[in-house]
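re: the backbone from monday

yeah here it is again, tokenized this time
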């Protein structure tokens, strides 16, 4: 029986995925600890949904290969898709920044993603290695932001999640959103199953916000059936990963129990 294992801290998206997966006949289960339950460890094929910590402890035991966008993907996009300057550099370089910027770790949540007055407020070498990647973006204001679950380069489901920086969930995603999404996805450089956020800036310009792994992303008001389709591809059996997706697999650490 196909397994879908969810992280212990289940959210609304997780609850929807459990319902949809069970309706399809999958064995959908929420872990009670940050590990794979012994009674489920041998089930194959297996899939997972949860954050990076859960992926790191469960993927190896389940034979799962989580797909994630490259850390520098946003910085590689052409300027017309960004509406702002974006670069990906090392933490050592980012600490030298002497202007306000939106700073975030492009992989995992190693430090708070927010606007910093300059780079001096970033974690020091005693906390994080100098070669830790940091994404530096100009400070802009998004009037609206939308989440897109993407499979094979096409948007499967979308929803609004913010207005003027505040949570404002709605299933609305009009033709402008999907038209811009098509342009952004045409740039390539992403795995076959991924989440991409886009938004409209205060001046009316459309811009890519970021890309995230589908297996660690909230669904907001997206259709949960389509969300499940994307999640199952994004964190499924390593033996089923195509050569095209192989460069996007997250390294799975050895876990000692």
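seq for it, each position gets an aa:
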């Amino acid at each position: 029986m196909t397994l879908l294992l969810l992280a212990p801290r289940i959210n609304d998206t997780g609850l929807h995925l459990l319902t949809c997966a069970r309706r399809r006949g999958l064995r959908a289960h929420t872990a009670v600890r940050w590990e794979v339950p012994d009674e489920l460890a041998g089930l194959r094929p297996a899939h997972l949904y949860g954050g990076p910590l859960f992926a790191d402890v469960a993927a190896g035991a389940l034979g799962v290969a989580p797909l994630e966008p490259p850390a520098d993907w946003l910085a590689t996009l052409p300027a017309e898709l960004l509406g702002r300057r974006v670069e990906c550099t090392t933490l050592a370089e980012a600490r030298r920044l002497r202007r306000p910027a939106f700073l975030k770790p492009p992989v995992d949540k190693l430090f708070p993603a927010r606007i910093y007055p300059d780079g001096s407020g970033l974690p020091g070498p005693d906390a994080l290695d100098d070669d830790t990647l940091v994404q530096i973006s100009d400070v802009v204001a998004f009037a609206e932001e939308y989440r897109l679950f993407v499979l094979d380069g096409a948007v499967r489901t979308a929803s609004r999640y913010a207005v003027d920086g505040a949570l404002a969930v709605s299933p609305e995603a009009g033709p402008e959103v999907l038209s811009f999404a098509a342009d952004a996805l045409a740039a390539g450089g992403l795995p076959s199953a991924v989440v991409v956020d886009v938004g409209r800036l205060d001046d009316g310009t459309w811009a890519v916000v970021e890309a995230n792994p589908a297996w660690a992303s909230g669904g907001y008001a997206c259709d949960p059936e389509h969300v499940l389709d994307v999640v199952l591809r994004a964190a499924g059996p390593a033996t089923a990963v195509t050569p095209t997706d192989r460069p996007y697999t997250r390294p799975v650490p050895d876990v000692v129990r």
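The helical segments are 12-23, 52-62, 73-76, 91-94, 175-185, 224-234. The mean pLDDT is 95.
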